[in-house]
């Protein structure tokens, strides 16, 4: 069992190591593009900044490869080169699940879906490899049969099995948030904060975000204010964690931490994905806790966000700015302290186990 978990961790770390440059490149370019344009009640205004819009678009292109690369190289770690095609196909589809009759008309499974489909792709390829093919077709197995057969299985699973429940789950979450909005504001903020952090740009995150954005039109700016504080806390908290305890993180993780800080500053929650993908059982609860704290403080402090965006960059369109800054700072500290403490405890336990 322990050996299987070690192998699983290695598969995930392989995917993370390949995806970090895409996140860093895309995230920093997006941060640069957004940081120098005016923030309006409808979001960043690029009307007088075509060069920054170009930088933003290129960064977004790099960022859009996140899920395919993550899934593809997880499958590669499991099954070698034959795992790349179904892994990339599955990762792409993880971000493009058709959802007819709804707006938007497709949904994303987020990084959790990419992790799952990457592992499935590797398993499918390894299963096909064990089939004994006639000698006459053996030469074309790796270049034709393996990629086609595995991609068909992986694609069908993602589109017909995984995607539909996720779309239905999003609808249920949306209805649940609507019912909560008329009740306890603190509970609503806690739920929104947890959802924002849970899958970092995935369907649960997007449901909370779009709910907050919809509340802007209703004049309830405090709902988006809670989301805006929660959105930036995961990457900022993990980035801060790598600075507070540098010896507890690898050089690659420290580099990802710097990129996460830049992305957190402009409200890109996905900056936390490399950390969550490598160690989801520890990272996800910590960032959820930090985002919940940030959202609750923002709600109690009367923070209102007039733009459908989050992070420190929206400060010009925020009501009660001091409370907004306090919410982000406290949420960031909670995240950083929680993850560093949990990792230190895990290392101490591992050390004691090795001495026995």
Number of helices, where a helix is a run of at least 4 consecutive DSSP H or I residues? 13
Residue share in β-strands: under 5%
N-to-C span? 19 Å
Reported for the largest beta sheet, the result is: 2 strands, antiparallel
**What global shape is seen?**
globular
Instruction: List low-confidence stretches.
Output: none
Order of helices and strands: HEEHHHEEHHHHHHHHEEH
Average pLDDT reading: 88
| Class derived from helix and strand content | mainly alpha
Strand order of the largest sheet: 1-2
> Share of helix among residues?
over 70%
Rg, Å, rounded = 21 Å
Written description of the protein model:
This protein is mainly alpha-helical and 356 residues long. It has a domain of 176 residues. It contains 13 helices and six strands. The strands form three sheets. Strands 1-2 form a two-stranded antiparallel sheet. The chain has a two-stranded antiparallel ribbon with strand order 3-4. Strands 5-6 form a two-stranded antiparallel sheet. A hairpin with a 2-residue loop joins strand 1 and strand 2.
What brief labels describe this structure?
13 helices, 356 residues, mainly alpha, two-stranded antiparallel ribbon, 6 strands, single chain
Topology, element by element:
Elements: H1 2-35, E1 39-40, E2 43-44, H2 50-64, H3 66-79, H4 84-94, E3 97-98, E4 106-107, H5 110-129, H6 141-180, H7 185-198, H8 203-217, H9 221-244, H10 251-265, H11 273-278, H12 280-300, E5 304-305, E6 318-319, H13 321-355
Antiparallel strand pairs: 1-2, 3-4, 5-6
Helix pairs in contact: 1-2, 1-3, 1-10, 3-4, 3-5, 4-5, 4-6, 5-6, 6-8, 7-8, 7-9, 7-12, 8-9, 9-10, 9-12, 9-13, 12-13
